[in-house]
Amino acid sequence: MNATPGPRSAGALLLCRAESSAVRPPARLLREQLLLAPAGPHWSVLVPEGRPWLDGGEPVERVVTGWATALAVSAATWPVLALWWDGDRAGFTLAAGFRRTVGYTWLADGTPVGEDEAMRTFAARLHLDPVLEVQALEPLTRPDPDADAHARLVGLAAVLAGTGLALPTGLAPGDSPDRLRSVAHAQGAELLEAAGRRDAVRAELDVLEGGPLGPYLRGPRARHLGVVQLAAGVPLLAWGIGRRSGGWTAAGVLLVAHGALGLAYDRLREVP
Length: 272
Known about the structure:
Elements: E1 11-16, H1 20-28, E2 34-38, E3 44-48, H2 51-54, H3 60-75, E4 80-85, E5 89-95, E6 102-107, H4 116-125, H5 132-137, H6 149-160, H7 177-186, E7 190-192, H8 197-209, H9 214-217, H10 220-242, H11 246-268
């Protein structure tokens, strides 16, 4: 006989494989009230208030899948794992960059209804150890009369402990949103308010600068690139004008514009 069915109250946690400083800018763009806390080396956790599914009636799985996808696309360099549950089911959704999300689901009594291939893809995208951690995931895909949906999520978090995940004390998948937020507050989690228009623009720039192009947008490398573009563009522009060559003139204008804008952007972003 299966264990007592899992949690009745819908809720979710967003686990980001990045430091809190990297998670904060894109998380504010979700325009939701979230609590942010460290969750082990190179992991952070976001605790949502849950209004979209508590007040709006939208399924929690759909809401958090959208959030995880938005965060992963904004970040580009780190994945986001959404753990979710309601009165009937529980599961996870993993988003990584622009790749298609992968997820797995259990019924409230712990019965697996996901595909084994999804679990393997999940392990590969998180670069889990193919021997220890992947083998530890296998029991989660098999029937177990002593494991309900809550236990499945706790088991998944336990496997990820091998990657450094360490949820704040008392923060457990399967609890109600109110309890999760109460525990997160007690553990000193940071409240992220929805960003206003000006703050949203600044947050978007922070996200962009935190990505692969960041060093070329701001900082010593960006300034050096701007100077090089100006140094190459000014004589090229003069040469094109002197030769009455539209093509070379346009190339010079482009280089000068890029160099000037790059230096101006770097300077303006230094202003608080």
